[in-house]
Design the sequence.
């Protein structure tokens, strides 16, 4: 799983590539095991639980991106990712992913490499 | 993206999607549809899985390639009411997306479905490049608003019998098919609780009126399958204004 550094998070927060911090009011499945994620999610606050066949495999903490590998390859996820209520993320959808890839800023480009 | 070629050969393609002519992208030419096809993310959802949750933030729209999704709202008392059911060619999440509000309802899969997702940035760019998408979206929103107004009117002015007849006719419009005996059946299986919530009554009330409808020849029932009986009598019972 990818962890971003403070510089990258600050650049995302201060820039206009990602739409802005999004808070999930209640527990929600971000993507299911076997699905291609709609986005990858940088967790800013709270928790994301990764589970496989209903068994918890990992608890993701702030600063990490979930779904990156499967989103990047557009392949099926090995895990179901469930975000806990009152957690906040930056959502990196497909269009944003392409914009970051094209960004002249090295730190931002590194996020999606 | 390291590889934009579809990994799963079973995933739907916009060019050949059975719902293409039904949706907001129906006016696009093949080359434009191909661009949409590359951008979308398709997944097969199992019954009971959720597309989005009431209160959470939207960031794209969902296109139903195939299947049935129920849109429901949970009140403060925890009671669920089904607002509507969508199927092939419908889009979801557009209202919250453009109003920039969190989802006002939850979308849950009623039967195994294939659903495509397109992010907001791409939609906005597509609207700029192909204004017909905006026109189709406005048309869709207008129709949705009309349906919502009709529903409010029905709930406040019609009695249970009228509301149930109207519900069955509405389901017939979207989901009827002929069975092997030539009978018109509703190709959707809803529980009593779900049907009751759609017309705002208790289960027991629904059961009583369904039984009355069967006695009156308006419908027949085999398990959860509803078979349409006397359509004209159903229309009369629904007291439709149009």
Sequence:
């Amino acid at each position: 799983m990818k962890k971003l550094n403070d510089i990258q998070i600050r650049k995302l927060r201060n820039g206009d590539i990602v739409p802005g911090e999004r808070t999930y009011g209640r527990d929600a499945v971000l993507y299911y095991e076997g699905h291609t994620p709609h986005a990858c999610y940088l967790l800013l606050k709270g928790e994301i639980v990764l589970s496989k066949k209903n068994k918890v495999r990992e608890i993701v903490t702030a600063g990490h991106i979930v779904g990156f590998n499967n989103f990047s390859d557009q392949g099926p996820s090995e895990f179901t990712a469930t975000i806990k209520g009152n957690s906040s993320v930056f959502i990196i959808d497909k269009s944003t992913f392409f914009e970051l890839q094209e960004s002249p800023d090295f730190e931002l480009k590194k996020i999606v490499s | 993206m390291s590889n934009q070629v579809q990994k799963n050969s079973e995933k739907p393609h916009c060019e050949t999607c059975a719902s293409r002519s039904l949706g907001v992208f129906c006016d696009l030419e093949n080359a434009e549809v191909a661009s949409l096809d590359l951008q979308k993310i398709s997944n097969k959802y199992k019954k009971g899985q959720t597309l989005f949750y009431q209160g959470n933030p939207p960031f794209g729209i969902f296109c139903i390639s195939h299947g049935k999704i129920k849109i429901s709202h949970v009140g403060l008392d925890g009671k669920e009411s089904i607002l509507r059911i969508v199927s092939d060619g419908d889009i979801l999440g557009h209202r919250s997306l453009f109003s920039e509000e969190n989802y006002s309802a939850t979308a849950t899969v009623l039967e195994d479905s294939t659903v495509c997702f397109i992010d907001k940035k791409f939609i906005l760019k597509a609207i700029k490049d192909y204004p017909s998408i905006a026109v189709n979206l406005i048309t869709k929103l207008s129709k949705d608003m009309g349906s919502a107004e009709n529903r409010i009117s029905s709930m406040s002015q019609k009695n249970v019998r009228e509301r149930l007849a109207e519900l069955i006719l509405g389901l017939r419009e979207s989901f009827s098919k002929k069975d092997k005996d030539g009978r018109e059946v509703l190709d959707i299986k809803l529980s009593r609780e779900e049907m009751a919530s759609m017309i705002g009554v208790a289960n027991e009330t629904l059961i009583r009126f369904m039984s009355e409808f069967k006695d009156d020849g308006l419908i027949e029932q085999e398990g959860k399958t509803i078979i349409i009986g006397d359509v004209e009598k159903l229309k009369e019972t629904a007291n439709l204004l149009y």
Notes: Residues 131-157 of chain B form the longest helix (27 residues). Chain B has eight helices and ten strands. Chain B touches chain A at residues 1-4, 6-8, 39, 41-45, 49-50, 52-57, 59-60, 102, 117, 119-122, 125 (CB under 8 Å). The longest strand of chain B covers residues 60-74.
